Amino acid sequence: MITLYSIILTVFVYLASRYITKKYSSPLTSPVFLSTVIIIIILLASNISYSEYEPAKSIMTYLLGPATVSLAVPIYNNRALFAKYIVAAVTGLLIGSISTILSALLMAKGLHLSKMYLLGLTVKSVTVPVAAEIGGIIHGNISLIAAYVIVTGMLGAMFGAKVLNWFKIDDPFARGLAIGTIAHGIGTAEAVKEGEIQGAVSGAAMGIAAIITSFIIPYIIHFII
Is this model's pTM higher than 0.90 or not? Predict the structure, then answer.
């Protein structure tokens, strides 16, 4: 019963959060952030532990597989656009992937954080399944890495579009590329709501950035840490 209750609760709260963000648009009403806060409060009030909620989480997480695969449809529909901007896209992905790793490492070193935190921060912009695998290779703390990835995705979803608006970046391809490279799946969910092109490019960027990161991160860590 707790599992069914948790699934219904999560779906209902997320839909309610989407309604709220349409009425009151703000980074703090971003559906991912707002629904997470509300669900945590309700679970605490209901005295339901994370271990009791986890079966529901596992079921919903499993459904992310087909949902992620469905991103291939808009990518295929916009394949001509990808071919047109392939050089610019690959260049942007390389620069974006490398800069997000280096900026995290420099920030961590500037704050004199321990090696455990440094390693976790290097993969903060990669989707959780890939980040966990990379974490095993670089001997990072998987739980810490997952937390960094989720927080990064939330921040990207909350503020990514706002930052792009501030810099007057309105090209759909560029917006999708930036959000997907930095904020992986959570950011892509927000990019999809902007438009098909933004969602398609963000989905592709998320996957390619993960591949790029998995190749370059051991070398960056070897020379910097």
Answer: no
